[in-house]
Specification:
Layout: E1 2-6, E2 12-14, E3 22-24, E4 27-28, E5 54-58, H1 61-64, E6 72-75, H2 86-89, H3 91-98, E7 104-109, H4 118-121, E8 126-132, H5 138-144, H6 151-163, E9 167-175, H7 182-189, E10 195-200, H8 203-206, H9 208-217, H10 219-225, H11 228-244, E11 249-253
Bound molecules: iron/sulfur cluster.
Length: about 260
């Protein structure tokens, strides 16, 4: 993993994402190495190598995090705040330590490393923590998210956070036919989260390499995806499951535009 240290000018970035005012990224790049990662468009502007082989570290982020900002803030959008490198650098922890405790902060991660910082998380008055959970089997995870913790670790993290009184949510993403175990995720997180956000795979941002892997390794999945009718049937099945079981879903994102596969 190539580590590039940078001094940033600011750490709170204004965003047009609905419901959010700022994003905060103390890292750019991510060692979880998800092959479908939407943030890899950043490679266009960074000449460091393949996505997942480098992480930019904003070493002055803790000082910049002291700025008093108002509104809803999301950590992070182009990295995972608890990716493996955080285990050594404690940068996310330093950023949190320097933030105003009144801030409205939402943290999203795929890693149980978030539980390490429970002492600081508990000091925030308006904090929610989300775990991305998709129920991939270990074989599938090793292909699609090789650097990210397994399903069980993410569930344990949610349980821990919930038991410690942290407001939690589950981000079921990406939903991919035959690979994402939506029902298993809901069963395993029952009583552990306040709500769910569901996001189907965004093919246009997931990139060519991801499509190639699907074609070579998961032909049945491709068969569903490339047939718009089958794909909509699949989406309807998932949607009906949530409705039938009164699962609290705050956002249901399909990314099914006219040319969703291109
Ligand atoms: S954890 Fe998120 S930011 Fe990191 S590689 Fe995976 S999708 Fe991208």
């Amino acid at each position: 993993m190539k580590i590039i240290e940078k001094e940033a000018k600011s750490i709170y970035t204004k965003t047009k994402i609905p419901g959010l005012d700022y994003t905060i990224n103390q890292y750019v790049g991510c060692g979880h190495r998800c092959v479908y990662c939407y943030a890899k468009f950043i490679n266009k502007w960074k000449n460091y190598g393949e996505w997942g082989s480098w992480v930019e570290v904003k070493s002055n982020a803790p000082i910049l995090a002291r700025k008093n900002v108002k509104g809803n803030i999301s950590m992070s959008s182009v990295s995972d705040p608890y990716q493996p490198l955080e285990g050594e650098l404690f940068l996310t922890r330093d950023v949190l330590e320097n933030m105003d405790r009144d801030i409205n902060l939402s943290i999203l991660t795929k890693s149980d490393l978030i539980t390490r910082d429970i002492d600081i998380l508990k000091q925030f008055k308006n904090l929610e923590a989300g775990l991305t959970v998709n129920g991939f089997s270990d074989d599938v995870r090793k292909i699609l998210e090789p650097g990210a913790p397994p399903h069980e670790a993410r569930i344990s993290a949610l349980k821990f956070l919930k038991d410690e009184g942290i407001s939690t949510y589950c981000f079921i993403s990406p939903v991919i036919p035959l690979l994402t175990k939506v029902k298993k995720v809901v069963m395993d997180t029952k009583g552990l989260v306040n709500n769910y956000i569901v996001e189907f795979i965004n093919f246009s941002l997931a990139g060519y390499e991801f499509k190639k892997i699907l074609k070579n390794r998961f032909p049945e999945t491709i068969r569903v995806i490339q047939n718009k009718k089958l794909m909509w049937n699949y989406i309807d099945t998932i949607s009906s499951y949530f409705n039938r079981n009164n699962v609290p879903v705050s956002d249901f994102i399909t990314h099914m535009g006219k040319r969703y596969w291109e």
